[in-house]
What does this fold into?
Amino acid sequence: MNFIGLLEVGSRLGKKRWNDAWPGVAHASRRPIITLFALALGCSPSPHAAPSIDETTILAIEPADPLQSAMGELVLGLQAVEEDIRQSPSFGDEQERIGGYRHVLRALAKGLEAEVRQDPDYPYFRILDWWLREGGDNPDQRYAFTPIRGGEAYRVWGDLGSATRVELQIYAGRPWDGTGKSAGYLTFEEIELNEDGTFEIWVTPEKHEGNWLRNPPEGTTLFARHIYADWSDTPTGDIHIDRVGFEGQRRPPETEEELAAKIRAASVMFGTTARNWPAFVQRRYVGGGPKNTVRPPLDTYAFGGARGRWMSGGYFELGDGEALLIRIPPTSAHYQGIQLADMWMASLEHGNQVSSLTTEQSVASDDGAYWYVVANEDPEHANWLDAGTLRRGTIMIRWDGVQDALEPDQYPSAELIAIGEVEERVPGIRPVTPAERETTRAGRREHLQRRAHR
It folds into this structure.
C-alpha cells in the first residue's frame, strides 16, 4: 500500500470508526492530519489483505514490527496531548501558549530519558535542572533521579560541594500523579560527611554500616537533592550511583520487544506529566484560594515532599502597573526560599532573570521580615521577583529543616499594590541599581552552569 493509499484508507474510516478503534485519542480525529494514522503506526499490509482499499483492508493491516508499533503510539499520544494542552485554562495569551508548547516538549524529553535511557540495574542519575524544568522545580535545588529495584542493594557516592544540604528519598510508585507515596527518607542531619565533604550512602534492604537508607520491596525510584541557599562560584558537588554487584558486568543487549515496551512507558509518562501539571495548577493554585494571596504553610512529607519541609503557595495575576507585595517573617528553618513558576508549573528563567530568592540572597527589612515584590518591571527594591512578561503564574515558598510546626505569626502574607507604592510600603527599603542587577544575574548564570555541568 503506497502513501496515497494510506491517505484514502484514513479518510474512508471516518470519525466513528476511529473513535471505536482508538477511544483514548478519539478527539484527535477532528484534525486532518489523522488521515496519516496508518503511516504513523508503521503498518504494512498483511499478505492476506484484499487488493481494494476499504475497511476490510485496514483491519487486515498489521504493525510491521514492535518498534514501529510503539513509535506510532508515541506519535498518536503526542497529538492527543497537544489537543489537551490547547484546551487547558493555562493556554491563554501568547506567552502562556509558548509556555504550553515548551511544557509539552520538556515532558516528552523527560519521558524518553526516564523510561528509555535509564536502567535500574545499570543506573545513572537523571538530572532535572534549569535545562529541563517541571513540577514546580526549585531553582535552589539540583534534582537527581534514578529507577531502582525494590529490595536490592545500591551504593550512592558523591560530595556536598557548596550545597547547604543533600538529602535522599525513595518513592514507591509515582507520588506526583497520585499513584504512589514516599517510602523512605535520609535527611542531611543523618548523613555523616568526610572531612573533604564527600559521602558514601548504602541503599539496601537490610541495615548497613555507615550512612544507610532502607530500600523496601516496593521502592521504585531514588531521588536525591542538593540544596543551595547561596549561589556561590565554588565547586557545587555531585552525586553518583551503582547497583552493588553490577559495577563490572557487561550490560546485556535488549530485544525489540523490550525497547518497544520502554517506548510505550515513555509515552505514558509523557502524557501523565504533560497533563498533570497544568491540572495541578488549576486545582491547587487557581482554585485553592483567592488570587494574589498566599496560603498558610503545610507539611509536605505526607504528599511525597521532603521531611521537615513546609510549603506555602499562591496564584498571582498582575495588571499594568501592579505588583504583589509578599511579607515572610524569619524562622528557624535551615533553608528558606521563594520562587515563581508559570501556569504549566515550570520554574521561570532563573539564571538570566531573578525569579527566586533565598534568605541568604535577600535583604531583611527594618521589621526583621523579608519583603518581596512580584512585578513585571523593576521596582528598584533588592527583593524583586522578576515575573518577566508573564501576567499570571504561581508562587512557592519553602522552609527546609523545620523541626516543629510553624507558628501563625511566622506565616507569609500578600497584598496587590501599585508598583509606585513599593517604596512607602516596605520598611527600610534597599534600593538596587541596574548595574547591581546585572552583576546578580551574571553570578546566578555562572553558578547554574557550574551546578549542571553544562
Notes: Helices lie at 3-21, 37-40, 55-60, 66-87, 94-117, 256-286, 422-425, 434-452. The radius of gyration is 25 Å.
